[in-house]
Fold:
Amino acid sequence: MSCKYIFFDLDGTLTDPQEGITNCVRYALEAFGIHEEDYDRLMRFIGPPLVDSFSQYYGFDKEKSLAAVEKYRERFSDVGLFENRVYDGICGLLTRLSEAGHVLVIATSKPRVYALRILAKYGLDGYFSFVAGSELDGTRNYKDEVISYAMENIGCAADEVIMVGDRRQDIIGAKKCGVTSCGVRFGYAEPGELEAAGADYIADDIEELENILLKV
Structure:
């Protein structure tokens, strides 16, 4: 088994956070007098660090972006994080990967404190040996930082790891760390996004993802 360690992104890979994230982004924008009716613009917030998205999509400077993140968390911490659902087939996938001897790890840009609550709420926490995420103060905001942190804490080498995620940030982060990557198309990647980022593997569905992960 060359890739003994499987690192999973959370949003858009294990769970569908669409309702919670878009509602919380809209809530944050309202605080700045922006009434966003274009749902596609809200959907783009799923995956990348929030502070970057407020800047990129609404032209907020750093101070305003950080303030928007705080407004987002105001709703997310109590309501939004549970406006979520586990993708069909994920629990079976995680069970079979564990039974095959893989060590499963969460590597998310979401604050770790939220990731832990989501995993516990939906009964996923028992599958994972370690949960790596960002911190509320902005530490480890980017995926390569999260992946490196996880490897350091677990004590594994890059050539033992495969990173699974649905956005280009997952693929780019894996490449920066010298880690094999597998993109999934059932999340929130735009057409051609995973290919352009240089994913080593791409899975269209859970079944194909399982076949890939059991062979690498």
